[in-house]
Amino acid sequence: MTIVSIGDLITSFNPSIVWVILALIFAIIEAFTMGLTTIWFCGGAVVASLLAMVNAPIGVQVAMFLIVSFVLLYFTRPIAQKKLKVGSEKTNAEALIGKIGFVTQTIQPFSTGQVKLEGKEWTAIAEDRSITIEKGSKVVAVKIEGVKLVVVPEQ
């Protein structure tokens, strides 16, 4: 049985392996979350691993890991999100924007009324809070504020 001292472990420690393991961990986390966040740290860990292979000081490795990771995160994440359309899927409510509905309960100034849109009843408010939109009027959904549909009279 061989006893390994702490000194032996320290002298045989290879930081490039640690950086590769970190890169793999970041890649695995990204695969499960798909938030385009940890993948950039994977790139930083790969750069740090390459620096470790050429015996760069640990401070340089850590600094380059942080710099590369945050540069990738800051500059390439928005581009990747646009290309991959991450987070751009419309919810059912957002899909109603621009649709035409009918007022089923008059929308009073600075108050709410009811609108039927796509077969559903919505509590609605006028975008111009000072106007009245009469029952039976056609309206266009312009946005959603909380659980209220914001509408304008159809032109």
Descriptive notes:
The protein is α+β, with helices and mostly antiparallel strands and 155 residues long. The chain has 2 domains: 6-84; 94-153, OB fold (Dihydrolipoamide Acetyltransferase, E2P), CATH 2.40.50.140. Helices cover 44% and strands 21% of the residues. The protein has a 5-stranded mixed barrel. A hairpin with a 2-residue loop joins strand 4 and strand 5 (148-153). Helix 2 (15-33) packs antiparallel against helix 3 (39-53) and helix 3 runs antiparallel to helix 4 (58-84). The longest helix is centred in the middle third of the chain and has 27 residues, at 58-84. The mean pLDDT is 87. Its main location: membrane. It is a multi-pass membrane protein. The chain crosses the membrane at residues 17-41, 47-75. Residues 93-153 form the NfeD-like C-terminal domain.
- Put simply, the count of helices is 4
Distance between the termini: 88 Å
Q: Give the SSE order as H and E letters.
A: HHHHEEEEE
- Report the average pLDDT across residues: 87
Helix content: 40-55%
- Count of beta strands: 5
The biggest beta sheet reads: 5 strands, mixed, barrel
Query: If you compute it from the alpha carbons, what radius of gyration comes out, rounded to the nearest whole angstrom?
Result: 28 Å
Strand order of the largest sheet: 1-2-3-5-4
How many discrete structural domains? 2
Subcellular location: Membrane
Pfam family, one: NfeD
Main location: membrane
Membrane topology: Multi-pass membrane protein
